[in-house]
Amino acid sequence: MAHLLKKFAQKAVAGREVVASEKMERQIEMMQEARLTRLTHTLKNLSNGWSDELDRDVEFIRQTGFARSALKTARKFESKIERAAPGTVRRVTRLDGLEFQVGVRFLRECADYLLGDPQGRERIILVSGVVTPDGVRVLSTLEKVKFDEQTATFVSANQADLQRKLIELDRDGHPWLGMWHSHPFGTGIGGSAPSQTDMDMQNRFVAAGCDTIGGIFTRDYTVRIFGTGKPLKVHVFGEGFTTLSESSHELILKLEKA
Ligand SMILES: [Zn+2]
Asked: Mean pLDDT, the chain, as a whole number?
């Protein structure tokens, strides 16, 4: 089911089936609401097998969320073309990859929190934000999650809390843009290198169709933002940082501390 929705959404993005898409979106929305009700019920009655049920519901909501936003994007895209005056060149640029924007002050806020554990342990956050009409993902909201396990070299987010936060983001129509964590004992480019666990996690998100990006913050405020799927471009807004390295899959910079 979710697979079909995704297919339909991709077709819609390609600029077809747009008229039917609004009706389709309403149907998806109704299905999502039914699922959310069931999910709330599941959370209230943590019976045997609740975890599996929760996973299925979250997956459904995530997939349908993707379908809905793709349908919306497709309609915006279509109306932009329709509005162009007859005879003018209708040139619509499609990004080859993902484009992000982030402000220095937000990066510093993330660094302060991620590296702020009194016992020097790792922390992890969800990152959300907004998407501009031309598709730039603005990384601008820090979403704290509870931890299950937390040491100086390892952190795991509490799954139930994580899922709850993702559902809240989806409810408010905000995208899940990143999952960032700290390496409190690392410094510089080397210290910000993703571990095998970090790469595995990032690859799992990509395999699930999420366009989320990873972020690693070290003790000296070196920040590595990286992806393992589509090529990415990160624009940094503001003053007070030095770019250390940049490629189509990552950006490494050093923030000046406030
Ligand atoms: Zn790590």
From this structure: 81
Are 70 and 199 a contacting pair, CB within 8 Å?
no
CB 96 within 8 A of CB 114: no
- The count of residues in the chain is 258
185 alpha carbon – ligand 1 mean position (Å): 11
In eight-state DSSP terms, residue 184 is T
- The torsion angle over the Cα atoms of residues 135, 225, 145 and 50, rounded to 10 degrees, is 70
Query: What's residue 91's pLDDT?
Result: 40
Half-sphere exposure for 207 (CA within 13 Å, toward CB): 6
Contact (CB, 8 A) for 241 and 254: yes
Q: Which of 206, 218, 207 is nearest to 98 (CA)?
A: 206
For residue 228, report the phi and psi dihedrals to the nearest 5 degrees.
-125, 5
Instruction: Tokens for 66, please give them.
Output: 């993707």
Q: Compute the distance from residue 16 Cα to the ligand 1 centre, in Å.
A: 42
Nearest to 146, CA basis, from 133, 131, 135, 156:
156
User: 3-class SS at 8?
Assistant: helix
Q: Given pLDDT bands bounded at 50, 70 and 90, which one contains residue 258? A: confident
Single-letter code of the amino acid located at 77: F
pLDDT score, position 37: 66
Centre of ligand 1 from the C-alpha of residue 70, in Å: 31
| Cα 217 to averaged position of ligand 1 atoms, centre (Å) | 9
Per-residue confidence at 15, pLDDT binned at 50, 70, 90?
very low
Number of Cβ within 10 Å of residue 194's Cβ equals 19
First to last CA, the chain: 49
Write the CB contacts of 69 (distance below 8 Å, at least 6 apart in sequence).
Answer: 175
In angstroms, the CA 240 to CA 103 distance is: 10
